[in-house]
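## Example record

The block below lists the input lines for one assembly entry, exactly as stored, with component labels intact.
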Amino acid sequence: MTDEQYVDGLFGEDEDLVRTKKGIAERGMPDISIADGYGRLLTMLAAMSGAKTALEIGALGGYSGICIARGLAAGGLLTSLELKAEYAEIANTHMTEAGLGDAVEYIVGDARESLARLREEGRTFDFFFIDADKEGYPVYLEHAIALANPGAVIIGDNILLRGRTTDPAKEGPSVKAVRHFNQQIASDERLMSTVLPGYDGLAIAIVK
Ligand SMILES: C[S@@+](CC[C@H](N)C(=O)[O-])C[C@H]1O[C@@H](n2cnc3c(N)ncnc32)[C@H](O)[C@@H]1O
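Predicted structure tokens for the full assembly:
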């Protein structure tokens, strides 16, 4: 048993999240939702920061959406960007089944375009979760900082790329982009940040 399996085993099953994972598997979607422990952390960080508006980049089947929306202040709204219309629809179904249908809106399309539009519209957010194509991470981080209210929280998942980030033989575009993103997280003076190496790695930052 790994340390992560031990820790996950301490917590009881969450009916909504189990249903969501089952729905994702039954529809043949990839098993790439956020790790259970980091899902709990998303809820906690959203709640601890008092966030009311959240922006997620990469919805898949709604697992992380449920975790984020649960932590938002009363009347809060999660805006979720997803490339594939069918995924957004499934995520919406899972959010609704979890009683969170009123707490989410989906914007379908390439997140780069959706983010540019949100900036044009003058939208701002208290909480961000970056979890889409890895090549986009540096661009997504810049958009998140531009869309952030002071004190906003920015989270990025999979920053270790299952060992590829630290493997010097790996030089593909996703690996290069994630290394760049991690450097930005660590050194950008607009941020206060840390990186957790558990599961597949999670970056956490606060916009000063
Ligand atoms: C790792 S999954 C997201 C998992 C989800 N956040 C969770 O933990 O439950 C990545 C998602 O990003 C979406 N995606 C990939 N490229 C994208 C893009 N350019 N714009 C928006 N979404 C994108 C994929 O379709 C996929 O649903």
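DSSP finds eight helices and seven strands in the chain. Strands lie at 53-57, 77-82, 104-108, 125-130, 148-157, 191-196, 202-207.
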